Amino acid sequence: xxxxxxxxxxxxxxxxxxxxxxxxxxxxxxxxxxxxxxxxxxxxxxxxxxxxxxxxxxxxxxxxxxxxxxx
Length: 71
What we know:
Multidrug-efflux Transporter Regulator, Chain: A, Domain 2, globular
């Protein structure tokens, strides 16, 4: 059985990537960084696995599409 994907908050993402807050949001707008997901009315976070994919290879990172999940 697969372990559930954790949701991590901005502080953790900043520490893992070494990027600034403004750089993360600029890269999200450019489509070169995983977008955050809404976890409550005032909160958002990122899938741990998506941040790990980005950290592994930031240049080749692309959003997963429905075909990637089937493979």
